[in-house]
Structures are given as structure tokens and as C-alpha cells.
Amino acid sequence: MNKFLIALLVSIATFGDGRIITTTNNAASIVKLLVGDKASVESLTLGPQDPHYLSSKPSFTVKLSRADLLISIGMELEEGWLPLVTKGARNPKILHGAKGSLVLGEYLKNPLEVPVNLSRAQGDVHAAGNPHFLLSPQRVLELLPVISTKLVETFPDLKEVVRVNRAKLETELQNIVREMKSVKFHKNIIMYHKTLSYFLNDMGIEVAGYLEPKPGIPPSAAHMLNIMKTIDEKNVKLVLVENYFSDSIARKLQEKKDVRIYHIPVAAEGVEKVTTIVDLYRYLLNIVRVEEGK
User: Fold this and answer.
1) Facing residues of 19 across strands?
2) C-alpha 107: how far from its chain's center?
3) Is residue 159 within a helix (H) or strand (E), and if so which, with residue range?
């Protein structure tokens, strides 16, 4: 038996017939934790990539043409590339509103940072609010029934697998939520972008300032002077930069201020040791935690 046929048989034995495509690694991680090895789950966005600015690759079109279920974030996160890919895939099962489509943002309650007025002067803002809600374990707990129901509707044979794995995941997330409420953490931090808004909101951490003056706008010299002033006024000791942005500006800031800089993942598989979204929550929790004796 040749190597290709062996690999094909192993693939069939490992995964069920279902093909699930997600737009982000965090969504993929949640789904993998629910279905295990009983379906093929793949993210179009790699861990360290910014899902706002993906290109419409031909490979994406091929993958979506074969998909049974497409799980996206919505809230304009993928608007620059996903409509082109789904149109090119010519797969009616995954079109918006079809059985094989799930847009998680449509089920999100009380989104953060919904703009009152929209204008380009505000930078790259999302009309429906901040789309990075999967970075909150509490929000994921609220969305698990929606995700689980869609998985079982699409793949009825996975009902028991999803039920068992959902219970395990709920327990893990509940433990993390409890830990977030009990640890001592930094009260004020500086971020680059508003990616961690939901995570930090869960913990009651105030973002004292952002390195980008407005979403999508690079910092100016005048803005950085204001950030340095804020660091002094609010005694900020922690600066976090998402690892799909450069941390060079933050490093220059560190030359003048006594702050710690972390170039952080904000997605599962964003760095080597963060393989699941549960790993990601624990990684971020350890970053914002205040060390004993400080």
C-alpha cells in the first residue's frame, strides 16, 4: 500500500465526514474542544495573524467550497475578505442565513464599545461594537449553547460527543472566571489596540491609554508624549502589545519609563505554548497578575 493511500485512510479514520471552517483560531479552538477528533476543524486565520486584514486567497475559496459549516465572528471583523471568499466558493450551504452558517456576533448580548456616531475621523471602528468577544471566557460560556446547538443540527451523529465535551469545557471556563475574580492584578495598563477589551472588562482592569490614538491609526510623537504623561499620572507598570502588531514603539517607551512590555498572543496557537483558547486565557491571566510581594 503506497504512502499516499495510507495517509488518506488515516485521515478518514481520524476525522468524521464533517468539515468545519472558522474565520479565527479562537473560534476553531472552541469547536475543536467540542467535537474532538470527530470532525475536521480548520481556521482561515493563523494564530498570529490579524483577522481584520486577511487577503482573499484562492485556497480559502477551495476550503469553503467543501465546507459543511462556516463559523464566523461577524460585527464587520471579516468584511474586507470573507464576502469575496464565500461568493467564490459557490457553496449555498454556508451562505449567510443558510443551515451551514453561524455568525457568532449575531448572538452576542451587550457588546462593548458600540459607537454612538460613526465617522472616519474615529479610525477603524466597528458599527456593531468590539468584535473580540471570544477573548472573554464569560462571553464564551454564554455562547456555548448557540455553538453546540449549531454543531448538533449540522452533524446529528455528534450529539453525545458535543454534550460530554461541552460539560468539560464549561467547567474549565467557570474555573477560569472564578480565578479572574480572585487574583490580584494590575489596575491600570496600556494597550496597543482594543483587542482585550472583553477580557479586561471581565477583570475590572482599566485601560489607561492606547498606543494607537484611534483604531488603525499609528501613534504620533505628540500622542506618545501624552501616553508617557498618563503612565506617570496613573502609575502604569504594564504595556501590552498584540503580537500581530510591532512592539517597536512600546520598546522605545520602555527606554524612558519604568514599565514592562509584553508582546502577547490574542489567539489560540498565537505562540508555541498556547495551543487552545483555554491556554490563552491562562496565559493572559498570568500576564496581568501582580507578582507576590509587589
Assistant:
1) 40
2) 16
3) helix 159-182
**Residue 15 cell numbers, joined:** 476525522
Instruction: Give the chain's largest Cα–Cα span.
Output: 70
End-to-end CA distance of the chain: 63
pLDDT in tens, 156-211: 999 999 999 999 999 999 999 999 988 888 889 999 999 999 999 999 898 999 99
pTM for the predicted model, two decimal places: 0.90
DSSP 177-242: HHHHHHS-B-SEEEESSGGGHHHHHHHT-EEEEESSSBTTBPPPHHHHHHHHHHHHHHT--EEEEE
Residue 180 and residue 161 in contact, taking contact as beta carbons nearer than 8 Å = no
User: Which residues are paired to 33 by β-bridges?
Assistant: none
> How are beta strands 188-191 and 19-22 bridged, if at all?
unpaired
269 phi, psi to nearest 5 deg: 70, 20
Using CB atoms within 10 Å of the CB of residue 281, give its burial: 0 to 12 exposed, 13 to 18 middle, 19+ buried: buried
CB 261 within 8 A of CB 212: no
Domain architecture of the chain: domains with CATH: 3-178 (3.40.50.1980), 184-288 (3.40.50.1980)
Are residues 147 and 104 in contact, defined by beta-carbon separation less than 8 angstroms? yes
The length of the chain is 294
Instruction: State how beta strands 40-43 and 19-22 pair.
Output: parallel
Provide the grid cell at 269. 496557537
Are 204 and 232 in contact, with CB atoms under 8 Å apart? no
pLDDT of residue 15: 44
Close Cβ partners of 175 (under 8 Å, ≥ 6 residues apart)? none
Using DSSP, state whether 16 is helix, strand or coil. Answer: coil
CA distance 238 to 259: 6
pLDDT mean across residues, the chain: 90
For the chain, how big is the Rg over CA atoms in Å?
A: 20
Over range 95-124, report the average pLDDT.
85
